[in-house]
Amino acid sequence: QVQLVESGGGLVQAGGSLRLSCTVSSFGPFVELIGWYRQAPGKQRELVATISSGDIMHYADSAKGRFAISRDNAKKTVYLQMNNLKPEDTAVYYCHLDSSVRGTYWGQGTQVTVSP
User: Fold this and answer.
1) DSSP per-residue string spanning 28-63
2) Distance, CA of 95 to CA of 105 (rounded, Å)
3) Measuring CA to CA, which residue among 41, 54, 46, 34 is closest to residue 107?
4) Which residues, including other chains, have CB under 8 Å from residue 108's CB and lie 6 or more apart?
5) Per-residue pLDDT tens for 66-83?
6) How far apart are alpha carbons 27 and 55 in whole angstroms?
7) Rounded CA gap, 27 and 3, in Å?
8) How many Cβ atoms sit within 10 Å of the Cβ of residue 78?
9) CA atoms of 12 and 15, how far apart (whole Å)
10) Is a pLDDT exceeding 80 seen at residue 30?
């Protein structure tokens, strides 16, 4: 069983920054993809960014140029640095792990609210 624990959400004004953290109970010695998704009220959950075991990163168009995903293997933590936040970034942000060996796991989510 893999556990993902998110932190770092909060309330910020437009133009501000937040850094989300996702601590994983264990990184496997396999090819795995860890990412951030978000879900705004009344909308479907959508991809924000992913990072692979080989540090290949992928971003949604809405995140390019403003968000940066990174990982610290020693701390078993994946980060999402979010800059120049906009009110439309308001959502619950979820950490997600996708492993061909260990399966798929979601965190509980952390709320990000951006005020105008």
Assistant:
1) -SS-EEEEEEEE-TTS--EEEEEEETT--EEE-TTT
2) 8
3) 34
4) 5, 6, 94
5) 999 999 989 999 999 999
6) 13
7) 10
8) 27
9) 8
10) no
Please determine, for residue 11, whether its predicted confidence score (pLDDT) is greater than 80. yes
Contact 50, 34 (CB under 8 A): yes
The confidence score (pLDDT) of residue 64 equals 97
Q: Are 22 and 5 in contact (CB under 8 A)?
A: yes
| Sole residue written with tokens 């437009």 | 14
Lowest mean pLDDT among 36-40, 77-81, 85-89, 102-106: 102-106
Q: How far apart are CA 70 and CA 81, in angstroms?
A: 8
Let me know how long the chain is.
116
